[in-house]
Design brief:
By secondary structure, this protein is mainly α. The protein has a two-stranded antiparallel ribbon. The longest helix has about 45 residues. It starts with a helix and ends with a helix.
Length: about 170
Amino acid sequence: MDEDKLSVEAIAIQLTRLQRIRERTAAQLRTKDGVDPAAFAILFRLLCDGPMRSGALAEAVHSDASTISRHVAHLVERQLVERQADRSDGRATVLVVTERGREAAERIRRRRHENLTRVMAAWTSQDRATFAGLLRHFVDDYEQAKPAMLAAIRQDQNMYDLETENDS
C-alpha cells in the first residue's frame, strides 16, 4: 500500500475508534438534568440557530424526523425546550430553548471544554490550532462529499441486489 492509502486507512481506523469510545462514554453519561447525550446536538443547534420547526431541526442535525421527535419529547419533558406557535404560521409550532435549557447547555459546554482541555493538556497551542483547522476542513469536506458517498453506497447496494437476484 502506498503512503497515501496508508494515511487514509489510519484515519479511517482512528475515526472508527473515536466513534466507539464516544458511544461507550455517552452510554455511561447523563447530565443532572437527565439529558441523553444524543439530545445535546439538538439543544445546541437550537441555541445556535434559534427557534425552528422540527423538520428544519432534523435537517440541521442530519437526522430523521422520528429520532428528532423522540429527543425533542425528552427535552420538552425536562423543560429544556418548549413548543411555541410559529409567528409566521400560527398553525405550526417551533422549538425554543428555555432558560433552564440555556443553563444546562452552558454546563454541558463548560464540561466539554474542560474535558477536551484535559485530553489535549500536553499539546502546544500551535498543535491545538492546527488540529482545529484540519478538523474543520475535514468535516466541511466530509459534509460536501456526503451526497456523492451516499450515491456510491446506494449504487453498490443496487449492484449487490442485482447480483443476488441473478444468483437465485
